[in-house]
Amino acid sequence: MAEPILARNLRDVGGLPTVDGHRIRRGVLYRSGRLTGPSEGLAEGLADLGIRTVIDLRSSAERVGGPVEADGIETRHLGDAFSLPAGGPAPEELEALLGEHGAAVLMQHLYAGLIATPALADIVASLVDGAPALVHCTAGKDRTGVVVALVLALVGVPRDAIVDDYLVSDLPEHRTEPEALSALVPEWSEWWDPLLEARRDYLDAAFSVIDAHGSVGDYANDVLGIGPEHVAALRRLLVEDA
Fold it and tell me: Is 137 an annotated catalytic residue?
């Protein structure tokens, strides 16, 4: 299979149900961690999946090497405005600031911040005009998880199904290697486990921001500038028989 060659945590979100009895169309939206395949096979593997656009949510500091070079595949780097914080407090400062559950609390704050990032509007627009698309970051669970969760919520996938899809990233075969994060936050190595895990309460922190504003559609329109016309375009793209 192509998946282990192309990227860790690679999967098609197609097949998920919607609240009105439809399903997400397969072969339109993929998610993954950083692309790790050999350069000679990577573009071919992505093309075999039908991917036309790679939406890279990593910051410029995280990226190593150039974009995927292939006819018909475009890489869009959208991560500098939608990224993990660079550096951070020293371990003893972090422990004093956040306490024994500091890393988990930190992740909840991260997710709450990501869901409120205006760059989400550009990411959604890029997905609509670039599909079939692959959205990825380093681990494929945090930034990618928030983007995919928002998109799925906007087109009517129920919350439990969104969370279940997100938690697939916590399976041992999908978790990223600690080395992949060492360049981002090396001083937090003591807290690798919470940083590497996908936890329900992380995504719940993002949804709590949405819920405080009413419906996901109202939140997207009022806070992110993703209007009803963009949601309708997403639904036409992603939902079978919509």
Answer: yes
Average pLDDT for 49-56 = 94
Q: For tokens 């097949």, what's the residue?
A: 15
β-sheet bridge partners, residue 53: 74, 133
Cβ-based neighbours of 191, under 8 Å, separated by 6 or more: 94, 102, 103, 106
CB 14 within 8 A of CB 28: yes
- SS3 for 242? coil
- pTM to 2 decimal places: 0.88
Structure tokens at 175: 């978790």
Kindly tell me the burial class for residue 121, based on how many C-beta atoms sit within 10 Å of its own C-beta (0-12, 13-18, 19 or more).
middle
- Rounded CA gap, 225 and 45, in Å? 34
Q: Rounded mean pLDDT of 131-138? A: 94
Q: What's the pLDDT tens digit per position in 162-216?
A: 999 999 999 877 877 666 555 555 555 566 677 788 999 999 999 999 999 999 9
Annotated catalytic residue: which of 16, 84, 137, 149?
137
The DSSP code for 37 is: S
Q: Is-contact 194 170, C-beta < 8 A? A: no
> b/e map of 62-96 (b: 16 or more CB within 10 Å)?
beeeeebebeebebbebbeebbbeeeeeeeeebee
What are the CA-CA distances from residue 148 to residues 3, 55, 79, 80 (Å)? 19, 12, 15, 18
Separation CA 120–CA 154 (nearest Å) = 12
